[in-house]
Design a protein that fits this description.
seven-stranded mixed β-sheet; binds pyridoxal-5'-phosphate; single chain; Aspartate Aminotransferase, domain 2; 960 residues; Aspartate Aminotransferase, domain 1
Length: 960
């Protein structure tokens, strides 16, 4: 692979570059140079030594041959052409919406936004943090609750999170009661979670009051699944009197017109922000939200943006209460949410910024008016509109004729909700036109009369009177020019993959190719309702089946489910499959889950949510699983052993030689093996977890398979299983699983409200696999190993590499140990991370999985020049640490501790630092040509946590 290419001759022009040539950063001559530095004759030799022979795949992956970019787009056009768009009036939590083109192109389709990482390094993330803070403010204002998070995965799982929150904090330990008029997919997801954790959920019609007995928490939907608008104040009061907490799942758009949950006394509000400009996407990705009243903020799942100040006292945003993050809390974590839906929350927030409170209210009014017109027209037909009070959805009774009418509507191009044999649901949204209303009325033999009663159907006692979104940010960006510049201003503050490598260990921040992204906003993919009739979704199902099969081949498992919409949800689905399997064999007692101490925090949190008990297995001195401890724990828990969760290659960036042995020992004791596949970028084409001992794995398509990270989501966390676990894969939350399902059909616990979770971004991974082919994918893996070993080898004399395999090689990432330097000089891993900003880099992973270290994962996509730029920056920083070591400067007065440096600080007349300005700003010559200035200096996180502010601060804070 590293052989130099023959010089092109006039007779035989050089072959056109393949896509793999574009995806992989180093040219073949660069790879040769990197191998020379490492002392290996070829890439094959390096790979042979790095990957243990005992797990090495001895054949090429069986995948269709690689397509060119043109061919892949043609294929995607063909597949999209098998979907059929319709006027989507199914509702049930998913509504058509107009994504303003300025937001579609400049957020959803802009790499400045979609290639960004989760804002853990806040100094280089002020733009996206502001956008997420706007999202939180919008949600707080509309729900009239005190604190909202920066998104959750989908509405159904957000309600499940709310139920768990109520159970943790409610005084009363009784059952959870869910109103019968809650979305059916939500009820299915909550029931699944409750079943795993062993608590009772009762579904009851709360319009007639609360049932007797102890109640921990109550869930209401507003408007109800039936479209009915009800005044919940009495139920909320009754619940409070009984010591129960109350969650309202509320439609954000309707809250511009109706009383907010917080004003009715709710403790928690959850729901979806999808209809704020996010396409239907066949079910996701969409941002869910959660808001809570004061006092519950420390239990809030997901990420929370807060306001703090930087080293100069200037206001600055950062993620608040980070000690709550699941990688610190582990089995004490209250939620496993890591990747959420940041990009979609940003789209929704910008939609609200663009429309402002009056614009949103106008959209809600028009939507309501369309529903009123339809109800008025239907009054003259045999269709009975069941509820007098509604917002956008009519429940229509047509005894015995529901199918007949729905079929007729479908033939006319309208999808209605088929509730049961007698009942239909018809939902309006911002795209519904008077012509649509007339046509749907026509299906029922009714006509829209000009003089019909068009009075609103929102009861007077539910009228919203309180103001919302009064902050100036919601009135300043109404022209397209202003909006465009606001988006550009924010993204210019941030470092994303479009400006620098993001060498984050465990996160695989690789190329998100433009061609992979292109098809996701095509209407034939984007405008499909998740519950559309199967005849309209053939293209989607072809793409999904295809991707499932290819991922099964890549991983060596038998079946794959694409339902989980993040890695954490894949873990939960996989562990629930293990649980289901044990129970199907009468092994109810098998609940112990062994997890190595180095595991990602989501592992332990997911195990707890799957009703398991975590037992930690220690790490040996070489970073591998401690064999003695493992054997002891297996023996101690053999009778109750459910599973082990291991990450391979390990979170220490090492291929452990004995992984087969570990799997065999666990199997011999009757346990199942869960292999966390977040590090699959080190394995694709070289080894298969399903072959070397795994029973189940989740993958992160937003890592290995090129879905962009979006600043903290979307993600897709498919779960791949061996055949014996296939019957326990997640089922469809929108369908009652019946016993006459075909054997082997997925009938396990659903983890998302729609069957294919974040379906809308699956064309990205499908395209990546199709473009690369077996050879390209394997070459990418080899180059990922090469890049990591190149960086490790060049840096280890400056920062020792903590763990390597038996050959002295790392896998696809390496841990740089700062602890000896910290002990000697006081310079910390955090100082290095912040100083890297002055050099124009996003920091590596900080203090995971080992505190006081940096974990570097360069990926195959970075070319040699960028790898060297990073290495040079790290070596220069080491020089700065050396000057502290030699006593030339104190750590406090060094550029390390003062980093990062803003332009404001550097240009100020009174420069008081102990080192020259030039050293602060341009420590390397090359920076003179390409310099990033962070907008804020180092941020004081503790200050922000003590003075928690999680909504837009007064604008003056930034303007004086
Ligand atoms: C990223 C990661 C996860 C969690 O994935 P999310 O999509 O963020 O939920 C789990 N395990 C490991 C090792 C990871 O790196």
């Amino acid at each position: 692979m590293n052989a130099s290419l023959p010089a092109p001759s006039a007779a035989s022009p050089a072959p056109a570059a393949t896509f793999a040539d574009r995806h992989i950063g180093p040219r073949s001559s660069d790879a040769g140079q990197m191998l020379e530095v490492l002392g290996y004759p070829s890439l094959e030799r390096l790979v042979d030594l790095a990957v243990p022979a005992s797990i090495r795949l001895d054949r090429a992956l069986n995948l269709p041959s690689a397509l060119s970019e043109t061919e892949v787009l043609a294929q995607l056009r063909r597949i999209a052409g098998r979907n059929r768009t319709a006027v989507q009036m199914i509702g049930q939590g998913y509504f058509d919406t107009v994504t303003p083109p300025v937001i579609r192109r400049n957020v959803l389709e802009s790499p400045a936004w979609y290639t960004a990482y989760t804002p853990y390094q806040p100094e280089i993330s002020q733009g996206r943090l502001e956008a997420l803070l706007n999202f939180q403010t919008i949600v707080q204002d509309l729900t009239a609750l005190d604190i909202a998070n920066a998104s959750l995965l989908d509405e159904a799982s957000a309600v499940a999170e709310a139920v768990l929150l109520m159970r943790r904090s409610g005084k009363n330990k009784g059952r959870t009661v869910i109103d019968a008029d809650t979305l059916p997919q939500t009820i299915a997801v909550v029931r699944g979670r409750a079943e795993a954790l062993g608590f009772d959920v009762e579904i009851a019609d709360l319009s007639t009051g609360l049932p007797d007995g102890d109640i921990n928490g109550v869930v209401l939907q507003q408007p109800g699944a039936s479209g009915a608008l009800r005044n919940h104040a009495a139920v909320v009061d009754a619940a409070k009197e009984r010591g129960a907490l109350v969650t309202v799942a509320a439609d954000l758009l309707s809250l511009t017109l109706i009383t907010a949950p917080g004003e009715q006394g709710a403790d928690i509000a959850v729901g979806s922000a999808q209809r704020f400009g996010v396409p239907l996407f066949f079910g996701g990705p969409h941002a869910a939200y959660m808001a809570v009243r004061k006092g519950l903020e420390r239990m809030l799942p997901g990420r929370l943006v807060g306001v703090s100040k930087d080293a100069d006292g200037a206001p600055a945003y950062r993620l608040a209460l980070q000690t709550r993050e699941q990688h610190i809390r582990r089995e004490k974590a209250t939620s496993n949410i890591c990747t959420a839906q940041a990009l979609l929350a940003i789209v929704a927030s910008m939609y609200a910024v663009y429309h402002g409170p009056e614009g949103l209210t106008a959209i809600a009014r028009t939507t309501h008016q369309r529903a009123v017109e339809l109800a008025a027209a239907l009054a003259g037909s045999e269709a009975e509109v069941v509820h007098a009070a509604f917002f956008d959805t009519l429940l229509v009774r047509v005894p015995g004729k529901a199918s007949q009418y729905a079929d007729a509507a479908e033939a006319a191009g309208f999808n209605l909700r088929r509730v049961d044999a007698d009942t239909l649901g018809i939902s309006c949204d911002e795209t519904t036109t008077p012509e649509h209303v007339a046509a749907v009325a026509g299906v029922f033999g009714a006509t829209v009369e000009a003089d019909a009663d068009r009075a609103e159907r929102i009861p007077a006692d539910l009228h919203r009177t309180s103001p919302f979104m009064t902050h100036p940010v919601f009135s300043r960006h109404r022209s397209e020019t202003a909006m465009l510049r606001y988006l550009r201003k924010l993204s210019d503050k941030d470092l994303a993959l479009d400006r620098t490598m993001i060498p984050l260990g465990s996160c695989t921040m690789k190329l998100n190719a433009t061609v992979e992204m292109e098809s996701i906003s095509w209407p034939e993919f984007a405008s499909i309702h998740p519950y559309a009739p199967e005849s309209q979704t053939e293209g989607w199902r072809e793409l999904i089946t295809d991707l499932e099969e290819r991922l099964a081949e890549i991983t060596g498992y038998d079946r794959v489910s694409l339902q989980p919409n993040a890695g954490s949800q894949g873990e939960l689905a996989g562990l629930l499959a293990i649980r289901g399997y044990h129970r199907s064999r009468g092994d109810e007692n098998r609940t112990i889950c062994l997890i190595p101490s180095s595991a990602h925090g989501t592992n332990a949190a997911s195990a707890v949510l799957a009703g398991m008990k975590v037992v930690v297995v220690g790490t040996a001195a070489n970073g591998n699983i401690d064999h003695d401890d493992l054997l002891a724990k297996i023996e101690q828990h053999a009778a109750n052993l459910s599973a082990i969760m291991i990450t391979y290659p390990s979170t220490h960036g090492v291929f452990e030689e004995d992984v087969r042995w570990v799997c065999e020992k666990v199997h011999a004791a009757g346990g199942q093996v869960y292999i966390d596949g977040a590090n699959l970028n080190a394995l694709v084409g070289l080894a298969q977890p399903g072959e070397f001992g795994g029973d189940v794995s989740h993958l992160n398509l937003h890592k290995t398979f090129c879905i962009p990270h979006g600043g903290g989501g979307p993600g897709v966390g498919p779960v791949a299983v061996a055949a014996h676990l296939a019957p326990f894969l997640p089922g469809d939350a929108n369908r009652d699983v019946t016993t006459d399902d075909a054997p082997g059909a997925e009938s396990g616990t659903p983890v998302s409200g729609s069957m294919y979770g974040s379906a809308g971004v699956l064309p990205i991974s499908w395209a990546y696999v199709a473009l690369m082919g077996a050879e390209g994918l394997t070459s990418a893996t080899a180059h990922a190993l090469l890049a990591a070993n190149y960086v490790a080898s060049r840096l280890t004399e400056h920062f020792p590499v903590l763990y390597t395999g038996v050959q002295g090689l790392v896998a696809h990432e390496c841990i740089l140990d700062l602890r000896p330097l910290t002990a000697a000089t006081g310079a910390t891993a955090e100082d290095v991370a912040k100083r890297l900003i002055d050099y124009g880099f996003h920091a590596p992973t900080l203090s995971f999985p080992v505190a006081g270290t940096l974990m570097v994962e360069p990926t195959e996509s970075e070319d040699l020049a960028e790898l060297d730029r990073f290495v040079d920056a790290m070596i220069a920083i080491k020089g700065e640490i050396d000057r502290v070591a030699s006593g030339e400067s104190s750590i406090e007065e060094s550029p390390l501790r003062q980093a990062p440096h803003t332009a404001q600080l550097l240009i100020a007349d009174d420069w008081t630092q102990a080192y020259p300005r030039e050293l602060a700003a341009y420590p390397l010559r090359s920076l003179r040509h390409d310099k990033y200035f962070p907008p804020v200096r180092r941020i004081d996180g503790a200050h922000g946590d003590r003075n928690l502010i999680c909504s837009c601060p007064p604008i003056e804070a930034f303007e004086d």
